[in-house]
Amino acid sequence: MATKEFKQRLHRALNNSSLRKALESFGDAYVISREAVYSGRDFEALRQKIAAIKSEAAGRYEELADQFSRAVEARGGRVFRASDAAAAREYILKVAQEHGVTDLVKSKSFASEEIHLNEYLQEHGVNPHETDLAEWILQLMPGERPSHMVMPAIHLLKEEVAEVFSRYLGQPVEADISKLVRIARRELRKKFLTAGMGISGANIAVAETCTIVICTNEGNARLTTTVPSVHLAIVGLEKLVPRLKDIVPILEALPRSGTGQHITSYVTLISGPVPAWRGEGESLKELHVVLLDNGRSRMAADPVFKEALQCIRCASCTNVCPVFQLVSGQAYGEVYSGGIGCILTAFFSSLEEAADIQSLCLSCRRCAEVCPGNINIPELVLKLRHRVVDKKGLSPGYRIALHGVVSKPKLMHSMLRAAARLQRPVTGGTSFIRHLPLFFSPLTKGRSLPAIASVPFRNLSQRLEQEYKVAKPHLKAALYAGCVIDFVYPQIGEAIYKVLGRYGVQVTFPQGQACCGAPASYAGDDETAVKLAKINIAALEEANADVIVTACPTCAVALKNDFVELLSEEPEWSERARALAKRVKDFTELVNELTSGEDRGEYKGKEQTVKVTYHDSCHFKRSMGLDQVARKLLRSQPGVELVEMKDCDRCCGFAGSYNVKYPQISAPILKRKLNSIIESGAQVVSMDCPGCIVQIRGGLDQLNSPIKVKHTAEILAAELE
Amino acid sequence: MQSLLKEFSAQAETAGAQVILASSPEEIAPILIEHLRPLGSLIALVDTPLVKAADLEASLRAAGFKIEEDGAEFARQADIGIVEFDYGIAETGTMAADATDLKCRLAAMLPLSCVALLPLASIRATLTQVIDNYLERGSWPNYLTLVTGPSRTADIERSLTIGVHGPERLLIIVVGDGGGKDGH
Ligand code: SF4
Ligand code: SF4
After folding, report:
1. Which of A150, A313, A344 gets mutated to test ligand 1 (max ligand atoms within 8 A of its CB)?
2. N or C: chain B end with fewer CB closer than 10 Å?
3. How far apart are CA B24 and CA A464, in angstroms?
4. Which neighbouring-strand residues pair with A233?
């Protein structure tokens, strides 16, 4: 159950047009500049290196922290190990008070925000001044939330900043960016020169040389650590790396992934106290390092979530996230945003605080593609969702739908048949229907509801088996259709029979098959998912086929990966799941194998070519890696001219029941996709996920667009006629 | 060396710095006098080997600049800071310096313009090599700084603006050893 506060935050963010515009134009520019700075570099190798360094460190925090502390002390600094936020705050205040500090300067530090340092210091009579321009602007706007981890004020217009500065200075200020920056320089310079203490964060902390590495473009960390006579660095344990050399790959990735720069203007490496001007002359300043745990060791000890400690806080996962682009950091936790933010919030704050924000993830996997820490963010978000459900339970609607219907295939199928007759969801007076697999979704804004097929595929299959009978099949394939093909688009199933029959494959349809359980898994309901996995394994084993062919990537991932994992605690079942998984192939994968090397012969017939554009379904591309295979098949089709659309691999916003839960987010994501399709000039848009077909067909239908939406199998089948 | 210099200059200029080649230390003063005049008259000067070799202080004073060398107010009012860097990194147009010395840090950051003197022979290809060089020198410095271009921000409407907290102008003088072969 989403909290009221979360809903308000979401609503506010979604209705902030300058925020959306800023994030959209940044998102577009970011993709291009990121690509440019990585060109000629082996990003895969780089991120594997970073992941290895950070993961090794995460297994040795205690030892590294000891080594780091000893080194700092040997060089004349002091280290305080803070187990939680309160301990860190108290220590920092004590240091400030010991030096009679009334004003201090701060350069950007997530950790300081995480421990709510500013509020605490203020309550105790110490004024912290943020010196990163964006952070300072936000500090002058009480109640305003940061909208991005790296660019927290990205949503503000220069006019708003001018207003804030006018209020601060008590005199009118012109809305001219370079003048605004000059004012910030002048005002913050006063703070730098008079502050009694400087507080910084750290991007990396090297255990062997006790080096704190800080990256900034503005140079505020340089000043923070240069002028005041006390420097205190707040360092989360996850910043530790063992060796000096380990900083090289991290410094290579952080600015490139963060802002699309080769390097930030300033990289400062502090390894011990340095001179400052103190009273009458120069003498060594005081250096304090607060090593903050606050949930990090708990995370490091967690076999699943340890991976999240590989994060270098570049925010590229949010830069490419279609949901983040709409809702911004304002919808997420106060400090950490996006998919990774949910996970960090769950450990550094509480699971409760992460409960709402984790549900924003579409599982489109775009973030995992670009993460320089090589973190499987969507997978971790899903695991977090399971923990939330374990703790809080399923919401009642989900519970009835999943346990009461989806987990009972017979009941679900007969309800679907009834729904087909009436062409409206059969609800029996309750609202649980909203949580049933995909096609029960009510009419959402901007998308038509698909009609439920009058005859489901399972009733057509016997006829088709005869119609496309192969005399001497060299391969026997069992079709796993999945709910959408079975009950909404049986014609896709027919196309599969047609195409495979042509290549000498006999296809059968095991009648015992049921929903793959993905809707349950995505809702965090393992109980139902396990039940369905067993039903499907048994049904598909019975078919005795050489391959299990799928045409829905969500189902394929369930059959290939999820079943094995879900059943990992039951040895006999997990063995059966593994054996089944080995035989699962997507339709395009199978056709590609069947046709490779084969001369397709002369092209006869149709003179005119049809422009076809291809939509990359998230799981098809990013979980199965078949995006180029599908294109190859389409390109080799006579009569097909493949044209690419802009952002072909951006999510369409379907994501199972997501578009029901968050129609206000799903709709604009769909809109963007539809625009790309229309702008491509294609007559047909092809894709390999029936869920995407529901979403995109529904969207184009609302626009009365003549563009046809097809599964790749249908296009291949049409050509074979 | 030439190819390193070329790459270094190209990258540093992309990052917004201006790179000028002085074929020997003697050439530094005339170059600076010409370039610094429009930028102000008060210079915070950090005494370093190159500054000495070029006899910069005397030349700049003779040209009418006021030179600050010390004190509680050092670099606070100066228009220009002159510092020397230890290494250049060609790959990113970055300069590295052991900035443990307070004056080096102040002169590089407080004035609106910064002059960076960089021996030509100290340009390396990558950060890794520079780290190795520092490790070879012995004790790892307490304050090491890497600088690439002027201070910048894009915090307001993502519009790139230079000179937010540090210098808005970074003038890099790459100094050859006068052997003649390092010149243009
Ligand atoms: S999760 Fe990955 S992409 Fe996201 S901030 Fe961390 S390192 Fe960057
Ligand atoms: S999987 Fe997609 S929706 Fe989820 S966090 Fe990553 S980019 Fe965002």
Report:
1. A313
2. C
3. 87
4. A200, A289
Q: Which structural domain range is residue B33 located in?
A: 2-175
How do beta strands A266-270 and A211-216 pair?
antiparallel
pTM for the whole structure: 0.89
Residue A271 domain flag: yes
Q: Which amino acid is at A87?
A: A
Q: Does some domain include residue B96?
A: yes
Q: What is the mean pLDDT of residues A301-323?
A: 96
Structure confidence at residue A420 as a pLDDT band (50, 70, 90): low
Which CATH number do you get for residue A20? Answer: 3.40.50.10420
Instruction: Look up the domain containing A695 and give its range.
Output: 610-716
- Chain A residues near residue B105 by CB distance under 8 angstroms: 222, 226, 274
The three-class DSSP label of residue A118 is: helix
Output A10 or A442, whichever has higher pLDDT. A10
Nearest CA to ligand 2 atom 5: A339
Query: What does the alpha-carbon distance between residue A180 and residue A162 come to, in Å, rounded to a whole number?
Result: 7
Pocket of ligand 1, beta carbon within 6 A: A 257, 311-317, 340, 371-373, 375, 377
Which whole-number Å values give the CA distances from A187 to A168, A228, A685, in the listed order?
10, 16, 56
Please give the DSSP secondary-structure letter assigned to residue A551. S
A404 secondary structure, DSSP code: I
Residue B78: which CATH number?
3.40.50.10420
Is A554 within 8 Å of A516 (Cβ atoms)? Answer: yes
Question: Considering the domain boundaries, does residue A641 fall inside one?
Answer: yes
With beta carbons less than 8 A apart as the criterion, state whether A368 and A377 touch: yes
Q: Which residue's entry shows tokens 């000891």?
A: A66
* Higher-scoring residue by pLDDT: A394, A273: A273
Q: Is B81 helix (H, G, I), strand (E, B) or coil?
A: strand
The percentage of residues in chain A with a pLDDT greater than 90, rounded to a whole number, is 71
Q: Which of A137, A226, A248 has its CB closest to that of B105? A: A226
User: Total domain count for chain A?
Assistant: 2
Residue A650 belongs to domain with CATH number = 3.40.50
- Domain end call among A292, A317, A342: A292
* Domain tally, chain B: 1
Residue B164 covered by a domain: yes
- Band of the pLDDT at A428, cuts 50, 70, 90? very low
Task: Establish if A323 belongs to a structural domain.
Answer: no
DSSP structure string for A672-705: HHHHHHHHTT-SEEEES-HHHHHHHHHHHHHTT-
Which residues are within 8 A (CB) of A350 and not within 5 positions of it... i.e. 6 or more apart?
none
Distance CA A634, CA A703 (A): 26
pLDDT at B130: 97
Any domain includes A319: no
B160 within a domain of the structure (yes/no): yes
Checking if the pLDDT of A422 tops 70, the result is no
pLDDT at residue A427 greater than cutoff 70: no
The answer to whether the CB atoms of A226 and B102 lie below 8 A apart is: yes
Cα(A329) to ligand 1 centroid in Å equals 14
* Burial track A80-100 (b if 16+ CB lie within 10 A, e otherwise): bbbeebebbbebbbebbeeee
Position A100 pLDDT exceeds 50: yes
Q: What is the mean pLDDT of chain A?
A: 90
* Bridge partner residues of B21 (DSSP): B174
Q: What is the ipTM of this complex?
A: 0.96
What confidence score (pLDDT) does residue A440 get? 47
| Domain's final residue, options A267, A292, A317 | A292
Q: How many CB atoms lie within 10 A of CB A241?
A: 25
Residue nearest to atom 8 of ligand 1 (CA): A314
Centre of ligand 2 to C-alpha A522, Å, is 13
Atom of ligand 2 nearest to the CA of A368: 6
Per-residue pLDDT tens digits for A552-585:
999 999 999 999 999 999 999 999 999 999 999 9
Q: Across the interface, do A184 and B164 touch by the CB < 8 Å criterion?
A: yes
Predicted confidence (pLDDT) at residue B182 exceeds the cutoff of 90: no
Is residue B89 one of the residues assigned to a domain? yes
